Amino acid sequence: MQNPFAKWFGALQPEAQSVIGVDAGSAYLKVVQLRRKGGKAILETYGSLALGPYGAVEVGRATRLSTDKLIEALKDILREAHITTTRADFAIPFASSLVMPIELPLLPEKELAQAVPIEARKFIPVPMGEVSLEWWLLPQEPGAAPATKARVLVAAIHKEAATRFAEVAVGAALVVGAPEIEVFSALRALSADDLAPRAVIDFGAGETKLYLTDRGVLQLSHAVNHGSQDLTLALSRSGNLSVEAAEELKREKGLVPETAASLQGVLNATLSEIAGALRAFEKKAGHPVTEVILTGGGANLAGLTDFAARALQLGVARANPFSRVEAPAFLDDTLRSVGPEFSVALGVAFKALQEGGG
């Protein structure tokens, strides 16, 4: 099968219909509308909507909405963001998927296609009939000794999640292509031209995800059971604040002396687990990770970049995904500020553009 990682950001044709990328996270719904012109991606509009109130919980809290409520929220954000097209692609949440590299004997592709589902079954915790499975043969590292085994990247999507988003699309009168797992959307938005080992840490509301690429290929995905809502709840408990007030304090102040004691426990636990995963990769790969990129809504926490750099002893930078699109210059500061929150939505919008926009 064709390796999909040769270019995260494929060539754009001169003209196409506008498209929407939709990222339905656990706490916020994000949309980005793009069009392409002259081979470039043009930002037309974007928007974010807190999902908590639709689930009768506070802003910033993770929630599991019914399909009807998610349709209601999507219609609201499409209206509020002044979306003008119906062509959309959705990102499937990491929690509804599984992405992993596996090793198999060197086999002809036809035999490999039969062997992959059998081997993948060992790692997938639900019946195989409940998931859609895709796989890609990973390239051998240049200069390496002849391979003795085939390395395959397997991606499984829970069919229930794909069906749910298809129903949401119909309810919001959108025309959608095939969904993709959010890790691929994020990496498409954040990919660099070089092939150096790179870690992406996605700070979501309910969990934090680590994606590690090497030579442009996804090598590791790992979820940590702590997210930005845990920071809010820690502030709420320690300061005897309402969850809403704690969320506002976190967003306004970030990591400052008055909040640090409450936030550091959660952050240390999260980053310690991530550091362990990075060390294990470096030991196996024989070379270090050179860069860490912070993305997701939680990456906007003031002071987090420096805190993570000290904890991981690595260079750390905030994602700036909107740097890859054309937008009015007066929006530069705003887009740089909010960018990490929109990495997944932007990446899946890029996918829609690459596929022709309908």
Report on the structure:
The protein has helices at residues 67-80, 109-120, 159-171, 182-190, 228-239, 243-253, 257-285, 304-312, 332-338, 343-354, and strands at residues 19-24, 28-37, 40-50, 87-92, 97-105, 131-137, 149-158, 175-176, 180-181, 198-203, 208-214, 217-224, 291-295, 316-318. It is of the alpha/beta class and 358 residues long. It has one domain (19-354): Nucleotidyltransferase, domain 5 (2-Layer Sandwich). Helix 1 crosses helix 3, helix 5 (228-239) packs across helix 6 and helix 5 (228-239) runs antiparallel to helix 7 (257-285). The longest helix is centred in the last third of the chain and has 29 residues, at 257-285. It is globular.
Main beta-sheet strand count, sense and barrel state = 6 strands, mixed
Whole-number tally of structural domains: 1
Kindly state the percentage of residues in helix: 25-40%
User: What is the second-level CATH architecture?
Assistant: 2-Layer Sandwich
The fold-level CATH name is Nucleotidyltransferase, domain 5
Shape annotation: globular
Report the portion of residues in β strands: 25-35%
Structural class: alpha/beta
Low-confidence stretches: 1-14
Report how far the terminal alpha carbons are from each other.
Answer: 24 Å
The CATH class turns out to be: Alpha Beta
| Count of alpha and pi helical runs | 10
From the structure provided, what is the oligomeric state, counting identical versus distinct chains? single chain
The number of strands is 14
Overall pLDDT level: 90
Q: What's the CATH H-level homologous superfamily?
A: ATPase, nucleotide binding domain
Order of helices and strands: EEEHEEHEEHEEHEEEHHHEHEHH
Task: Tell me the radius of gyration.
Answer: 20 Å
